[in-house]
């Protein structure tokens, strides 16, 4: 992924309603959420939310599946992973101890619930 694509993804997330929408859709993976439901839950007018969802989709962070009059949005987890990896890939400059705290911070959210109970 080139810098332009990374900038587009980060720019898409750099607005409160878009960030909230993206986080909400991620929470509902793998089934996603209909656009109207996203707008309702975030208390954003549907036409405004439609614009936000379109920008997230153009940035590759969401995908849209239209069935009849309903558009269901799903998070593109691989794209999100790639953006995050891009940001931290060379952050340590050959010194992994600099990134270790970051990795420790994000690891608990990514451990399956069953493993957390053990």
UniProtKB/TrEMBL annotation:
This is Metalloregulator ArsR/SmtB family transcription factor. It comes from Devosia ureilytica. The keyword Oxidoreductase does not apply. Residues 1-95 form the HTH arsR-type domain. It comes from the Bacteria. Keywords: DNA-binding, Transcription, Transcription regulation. Pfam families: HTH_20 (PF12840). The keyword Magnesium does not apply. One of its GO terms (molecular function) is DNA binding.
């Amino acid at each position: 992924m080139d810098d332009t694509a990374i900038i587009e993804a980060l720019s898409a997330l750099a607005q409160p309603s878009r960030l909230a929408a993206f986080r909400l859709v991620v929470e509902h993976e793998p089934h996603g959420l209909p656009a109207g439901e996203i707008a309702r839950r975030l208390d954003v007018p549907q036409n405004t939310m439609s614009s936000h969802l379109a920008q997230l989709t153009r940035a590759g962070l969401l995908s849209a599946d239209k069935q009849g009059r309903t558009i269901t949005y799903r998070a593109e987890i691989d794209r999100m992973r790639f953006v995050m990896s891009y940001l931290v890939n060379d952050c340590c400059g050959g010194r992994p101890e600099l990134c270790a705290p970051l990795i420790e911070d994000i690891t608990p959210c990514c451990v399956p619930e069953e493993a957390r109970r053990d």
